[in-house]
Design brief:
Elements (H helix, E strand, L loop, with lengths): L1 E6 L4 H11 L4 E7 L13 E4 L3 H13 L3 E4 L6 H10 L4 E4 L5 H17 L4 E8 L9 H11 L10 E6 L5 E8 L4 E8 L3 H14 L5 E3 L1 H8 L2
Parallel strand pairs: 1-2, 1-3, 3-4, 4-5, 5-10, 6-7
Antiparallel strand pairs: 6-8, 8-9
Helix pairs in contact: 1-6, 2-3, 4-5
Length: 228
């Protein structure tokens, strides 16, 4: 049984992770904390699941390293030095860090990467992402990752990838990437119906991470592990 400590337990994501983990016999909830709570309960975890803000995430990551606990990090909006802290922590503990825990979105990452490489610079890329009005960061971490994947393709390194961000109502999450030439348009899109798609992905990540050595992992590693 995997003991979880859920950080951000009162948030929309934290509540769904808690609910789904409670219904899964592979998990036991060892602790649930929110920003401002005493985070020492992290020592009771096998895996810390972190969906808070960047500052709290870095604080909790220090404790995960101290107590040698694996960490699944879904927090977005981290600055460069905070991302570096995550990378440094992965030298001591297994860390899975992803801007989007959905298995479907991570398959979209693969499709977009391949499309950018195969289509070439003759197809201009742009991204539209939409989320609920409560989401603080814009563009989303997922949209930024998509843009980075496009710019990694040969000949696209200096390409300006336009990202349009929409914050409206209670949209769970939508990401659309279009590649347009003078002759045609190719569109790759993912729409999340409920937050459970991210919560289930986070739990899949926890199941994967508990078996890993210290290192930095992402959801692509989880997808690869499902092939075996």
């Amino acid at each position: 049984m995997i003991r979880l400590v859920i950080s951000g337990c009162y948030g929309k994501m934290g509540k769904r992770i808690n609910a789904l983990a409670s219904a899964d016999k592979e998990f036991k909830i060892a602790g649930a904390i929110e920003v401002g709570d005493n985070p020492e309960v992290i020592k009771e975890a096998d895996v810390l699941v972190e969906f808070t803000n960047p500052a709290a995430t870095c604080e909790h990551l220090d404790l995960a390293v101290k107590y040698k606990k694996a960490a699944v990090i879904g927090t977005t909006g981290l600055e460069a030095q905070q991302v570096q802290k995550v990378k440094q922590a992965s030298g001591n503990i297994p860390v899975l860090f992803s801007p989007n825990m959905s298995l479907g979105v991570n398959l979209v990452f693969r499709l977009v990467k391949e499309a950018a490489q195969k289509l070439g610079a003759g197809y201009k890329a742009d991204i539209v992402e939409a989320h609920h009005v409560h989401k603080k960061d814009a563009p989303s971490g997922t949209a930024k990752r998509l843009a980075d994947l496009i710019k990694q393709a040969p000949g696209r390194e200096k390409e300006e990838v336009k990202i349009d961000s929409i914050r409206e109502g209670e949209i769970v999450g939508e990401h659309q990437v279009s590649f347009e030439s003078a002759q045609d348009t190719i569109t790759i899109k993912h729409s999340a119906k409920t937050r459970d798609v991210f919560a289930r992905g986070a739990l899949e990540a926890a199941k994967f991470l508990i078996k890993q050595k210290p290192g930095l992992y992402d959801m692509q590693d989880v997808i690869e592990s499902r092939k075996k």
